[in-house]
Amino acid sequence: MPPVDRPPGRTTVEIRAVIEAFLQSCRQPALLEPGEELLPLTGDNFSLEMRGSRLMLEAWDRTRNLARRVTALQEPSAARLELTVERFARREGQLFLLDLARPAGADLGRRSARLVFRERFRLFLRRQFPEWDLAELSAEANLEFSLSPAFPRAFLRHGQHGWAALACPPEGDAAAALSFGLIWLSYLRASKRRVAVEGLALYAPAGRERAAALRLLALDPAAARCELFTYSEQDFVVRGDPRDHGNLDTRLDPCRRPAPNQGEAWQRIAALPGVERIVKHDGRASLRVRGLEFAEISGGDLIFGLGRRRAAHPHHAAEIERLVEELQRARTPAAQDHAHPLYRQYPEAWLESQARAQLETLDASLLPDPVYGQVPAFAAGERGVIDLLAVDRTGRLAVVELKASADLHLPLQALDYWIRVKWHLDRGEFTASGYFPGIELRPEPPRLLLVSPALQFHPTTETILGYFSPVVDVERIGVAEDWRKELRVMFRLTGAERPR
Known about the structure:
six-stranded mixed β-sheet; 12 helices
């Protein structure tokens, strides 16, 4: 076989020197052949050598062995080196050497992984929908319609019937995938008007589908059919039943009252102007300045600090007072420096502070006290939103979700919390655990209030809310953009209602 012609430029020896120099400069080298999985390189799974006049590159791992003849290369960058290689039957192709420690190399590696998973997703669909036409399949971003490249999506068609499909990759968040799946379903229904797009097929990694399954149970089957599939590492796909995932990652700790003399030694700190004293459900007292906690009292002990906490002793009192003064100067609506870290930090906590102080402004039917934060607790930890649990004057619970910036996932994150509150309510656990003493709680499902600056509700919010079950009584409350100064309600919208 005659050799493939090499464009004029570097000799084979020079090409080898460039490759070796690039690899020596890499902190995290990897090899990428388009359409194949990324192959990390170590000194033990890679070789570059001359075989006669040919420069051969080989790389291997436990499942594959790659051998290519290198014929040319492009000018290298710090993050990647593009090679022209000869494959079987003299076919020419591209090969990339990447430094995953550099952002550009990591981005290309992620895109390659997305394309590989897209092809796995294609195989899933062929197996589950063998008689359907795979009309569209994409793993590219669509910013106009808020579609993420992290979750490949597809449109399946059979005559005048269609299905939306979306898959969560093995390392992805299956619960987040549902948000994008519902957006994709709505997009197809709006753009494929001659086809009845019946529902959404959601694919999730086996063992990680519970959060998505629980959310599916709270959607309206009349709005769309939703099918859940799980896949294994061996690409074995099974249809899942959301009703099989009834156990929740939630707990409800007993509600404890603080001791009568709790924190007497620290009353001077708690009484400082602008300090908020919030009693938590476990009896501890949180000391805050506009939502930002700087100290906590438990029994007669106080710990303080931003970030790293330490036990306070009497000689720390002056230091704590200076900390409060600093917070008061930086964390105020009248602050001159809006870029100051203490001003910008934890905006949801600041919004919570305003909501607690003016709960009846948000909804006149809500009792201002008691109001509980972060109960029930999530085993998964931080969720990026503030949860408050209140009760109205008739004894009906109300879940209040607070978000200071636009978040596509807010509706379904709020639904997570609503599901857990309803779970404990149905079992009578709030009353049994000491919450809302003296108030007879109604058995109706709780209300769900989404509170955010009016211009910060994500454009897809109405789309996702349109799929909620009628059992979920949801209301959006948009507050004025100057909410740090004053909490003013700009609109109230029920369900998926759109603002005029």
